[in-house]
Amino acid sequence: FVGTPSFLMTLINRAEEMGHDVRRDFALRRAWFTGEMLPDRLRRTMEEDYHIATTQAYAVTEPGGAIAYECCQKAGMHLMDEYVVEIVDPSTGRQLGPGEIGEVVVTPTHNEAWGLIRFGTGDLSSYTTEPCPCGRTANRLVAILGRTGDAVKVRGMFVVAKQAEQVVHSFEEVSQFQMVIGRRQQRDELTMRVELKDGAIDKQRLAERMSERFQSLCRVAIDGFEFVESGSIPRDHQRIVDTRVWE
């Protein structure tokens, strides 16, 4: 299969509604995804429940198509030689370093008839210079984390809703969450509002684990947790609420 992960999941669900056993009735063994982000939870469903080996690529139509791709290690997407890819601050255009989240900016070098220079994709990502376990040494995009409008800057670092979801969804104890960005004594503060599936969970231990995971992935520390009653956070809520007032 080649296409978007959501469309493949739609096909699988439809096949099951028609009475098919997807693993038994279809010779579907590999999927190469592009066109939208592949959430970790959906990847696990594809691989563990349906035994479909998944890889993904990052493609942008205007510069010429596929720009980066996953190898079998699934440890980020290798940048292709035909493009100069930068990660920049969306507000200033300043180049950012490894691990810093910013906008993906692309310059194709393989098409002399199409003079596209520093095309802003609107996609948010970061890159790593660490060699891949597969042996390739090219820089890799860590992941596509969202769109520039989905991010908010906290203490100089971008916090992206999709990246926060990746963290929170790894904790089965959590049913809903919301990040609230405030400001106190000229300092940004990030508070994580959390609904739990079971109120008897050790909240302090959970907060410690979530804080460690969040800071490792998002590079910003959570300043505090607010555990709220079930139903306090609507299902169609904003993931990030920015209450800062700049005076």
Automatic annotation (TrEMBL):
Database matches in SUPFAM superfamilies: Acetyl-CoA synthetase-like (SSF56801)
InterPro entries: AMP-bd_C_sf, AMP-dep_Lig_C, AMP-dep_synth/lig_dom, ANL_N_sf
Pfam families tied to this protein: AMP-binding, AMP-binding_C_2
Domain AMP-dependent synthetase/ligase: 1-106
N-terminal signal peptide: none
Residue ranges annotated for the AMP-dependent ligase C-terminal domain, each copy included: 162-244
Entry-linked PANTHER family: BLR5969 PROTEIN
Name of protein: AMP-dependent ligase C-terminal domain-containing protein
Organism listed in the record: marine sediment metagenome
Lineage: unclassified sequences, metagenomes, ecological metagenomes
